[in-house]
Amino acid sequence: MAEGRGGEIEEQTRSAERTLREEALSKPVPETSKGFALMAKMGFKPGMSLGKKKDENDLGSGIREPLPVEVKSTRTGLGHANEQEQQAKLRIQREMERMKRRAEQHVELTEEYRKRKRGMSSTKDLIRDILASRKICVELDLRTNMEEPEVPWFWKSYYKQTNTDDFASNCDEDDDCSEELKYYYANGKEAPQEERFDELPNEILQERLLHITGYLRDAHRYCIWCGCQFENFEELESYCPGQDRQAHDSIDE
């Protein structure tokens, strides 16, 4: 109990000292004090700042208020508070750097995901455009009484087992029927084995698409993205936005 009362009295004493100190520092130096008298002998007047003056009317640009007093109430050494402050700043800085790295990693992962997604979408678009081009290529070529395609893969081929008259477009993966199959075009002419476009890299798919769409434009004045056959090449050049999907998509936007 005695220790508790002693601590309470000590705290009250510190509070009273702090109050008196703040009151004293908040008041200007009284003109009756010896300090003011000494400063007055050196030319100091109320409202003037410390430091050299240009003339007697110059109030100066130095400090006008006493320096603040910071009373140290702990047993830590001088500069300890500054050290703690520096450590706190370092911790905050390290945390900010860590958050920045995490944000950068998140951006990288997001961008990588978007690239993969764009790549998947691009592959699907390429294959879809190639298949659409082949379909219209067969139709337009047969209209001109062509018996075989300009390039073998321009036309879709169908397989037929040697012991049946039924045609199909593919063979079951579990069946080893390569020796029993023959491939034919839609007009009955013998054809090479149908190609798997989903197994080709994007670079090859882009070359294939450019090849067949270029053929459709040159041979039939047809654009798969416009979806029509033009009357002549002048009309094709005038009304078709371009020779790829991007050119047509930009018109839609």
UniProtKB/TrEMBL annotation:
<feature type="compositionally biased region" description="Basic and acidic residues">
    <location>
        <begin position="1"/>
        <end position="25"/>
    </location>
</feature>
<feature type="domain" description="G-patch">
    <location>
        <begin position="31"/>
        <end position="83"/>
    </location>
</feature>
<feature type="coiled-coil region">
    <location>
        <begin position="82"/>
        <end position="116"/>
    </location>
</feature>
<dbReference type="InterPro" id="IPR000467">
    <property type="entry name" value="G_patch_dom"/>
</dbReference>
<dbReference type="Pfam" id="PF13821">
    <property type="entry name" value="DUF4187"/>
</dbReference>
<dbReference type="Pfam" id="PF01585">
    <property type="entry name" value="G-patch"/>
</dbReference>
<dbReference type="InterPro" id="IPR025239">
    <property type="entry name" value="DUF4187"/>
</dbReference>
<protein>
    <recommendedName>
        <fullName>G patch domain-containing protein 11</fullName>
    </recommendedName>
</protein>
<comment type="similarity">
    <text>Belongs to the GPATCH11 family.</text>
</comment>
<dbReference type="GO" id="GO:0003676">
    <property type="term" value="F:nucleic acid binding"/>
</dbReference>
<dbReference type="InterPro" id="IPR039249">
    <property type="entry name" value="GPATCH11"/>
</dbReference>
<feature type="region of interest" description="Disordered">
    <location>
        <begin position="1"/>
        <end position="32"/>
    </location>
</feature>
<dbReference type="GO" id="GO:0000776">
    <property type="term" value="C:kinetochore"/>
</dbReference>
<keyword id="KW-0175">Coiled coil</keyword>
